[in-house]
Design a protein that fits this description.
359 residues, FAD/NAD(P)-binding domain, D-Amino Acid Oxidase, Chain A, domain 2, nine-stranded mixed β-sheet, six-stranded mixed β-sheet
Length: 359
């Protein structure tokens, strides 16, 4: 028997792939709550599941980038991106797991576990034995911590609210601030509601208040807070120990540039399902397929974190010469030729040598 802790996208998807060999334990009473995600999916999600209207609240046609001094670049996407209702999306995946034979238990918070011949899981009012244990229990995973898989884990803080207002429902806007490792966003659910947030390392309340002034949104229009910690991908991390594995946020399978991780987390679950079925090395196989892509995101983020406000102004201006609509964040290497414009390459190389960032 395989026990999965956490019924978010990675855990629920793994349960659907393992079928009747899986038991999924979710600590909350409602699937998908609390929400701590912006919920943007690129076309790469179609590699994993069929996209259903039941969980899509909006489709984005364009992305707008805005520099600290309001230089803008808006581009049309080759393929629409999906804004999902996380409760409905997670519920869809959980139902898929149940349909495939997995058992799902809500209101089951893992309190501890111990490993002897088998793995004994300790919940509030029961103990359960299992052959394999998978942590899909988020960035501060108990499963990962007990297995020694959280060592040296770094985090960022995402602070987001849904807010009433007037929005262009086809445009997702990203704001660069010129503060190290910080950016903001406005992601519309409709013409009247958007997800408004920032991510950064520290001083989040003050930065968020400054961001609200920039985009002219008053807190009285807030509907729901959707904040939380976000793990930073580390290519040298371990994601398994004996018969214990971690996936998704619990493993740090998150793009360092955008801090999105749904697709990569589900990709990890697909690989792990094959390993648990046929044998193999989970970490080695994930890194073979996706390690270079996530490492590229990490190095790009490291590089951009050294940019000043003026650097971002110049960068956004130069990006106008690139058709970013062809670029897919979940398959970054396929879009690298887009950046081979002489002026952009000269700017990037100059910044590289100035900052001495090893990429």
């Amino acid at each position: 028997m395989i026990s999965i802790i956490g019924a978010g996208p990675s855990g629920a998807y793994l349960g659907s792939l393992l079928g009747d060999r899986a038991r999924v334990f979710e600590e909350h009473s409602q699937i998908g709550k609390p929400i701590q995600c912006t919920g943007i999916l690129t076309r790469s999600i179609k590699e994993l599941i069929d996209v259903k209207d039941e969980f899509v609240v909006n489709k984005i046609n364009r992305i707008k980038l805005i520099s600290p001094n309001n230089k803008e670049y808006e581009f049309k996407l080759k393929d629409k991106e999906y804004i999902v209702d996380r409760c409905k999306f997670d519920t869809f995946l959980v139902n898929k797991a149940i349909d495939n034979g997995a058992k799902v238990f809500t209101n089951h918070k893992l309190l501890d576990y111990e490993i002897k011949e088998n793995i004994k899981l300790k919940f509030k009012d029961k103990e359960i034995e299992t052959d394999f244990l998978v942590g899909a229990d988020g960035p501060n995973s108990l499963v990962a911590r007990k297995a020694g898989l959280l060592e040296n884990r770094k985090y960022k803080v995402g602070h987001q609210y849904t807010a009433k207002g007037e929005y262009d429902p086809e445009v997702f806007t990203v704001y660069f601030n010129g503060v190290k490792s910080y950016f903001g966003w406005v992601v519309p659910e409709s013409k009247k509601i958007a997800r408004v947030g920032i991510v950064g390392d520290s001083n989040i309340p003050n930065l968020f208040n400054e961001f609200l002034k920039k985009i002219n949104i008053d807190k009285k229009y807030f509907i729901e807070c959707q904040s939380g910690s976000i793990p930073v991908y580390d290519h040298n991390s371990k994601w398994s120990s004996g018969k214990v594995y971690v996936v998704g946020d619990a493993a740090g399978h998150v793009k360092a540039t955008t801090l999105g991780g749904i697709v990569y987390g589900m990709r990890a679950s697909k690989i792990l399902a094959k390993v648990l079925t046929n044998g193999g090395n989970y970490e080695k196989e994930f890194k073979r397929q996706y390690g270079k892509s996530l490492k590229l995101h990490s190095k790009t983020n490291e590089f951009l974190s050294e940019f000043s406000a003026q650097d971002f102004d110049k960068f956004v201006s130069l990006l106008k010469k690139v058709n970013l609509g062809e670029f897919n964040r979940d398959n970054p290497f396929s879009g690298l030729p887009l950046f081979l414009k002489p002026s952009l390459m000269f700017f990037l190389m100059r910044k590289y040598f100035q900052n001495k960032v090893k990429i």
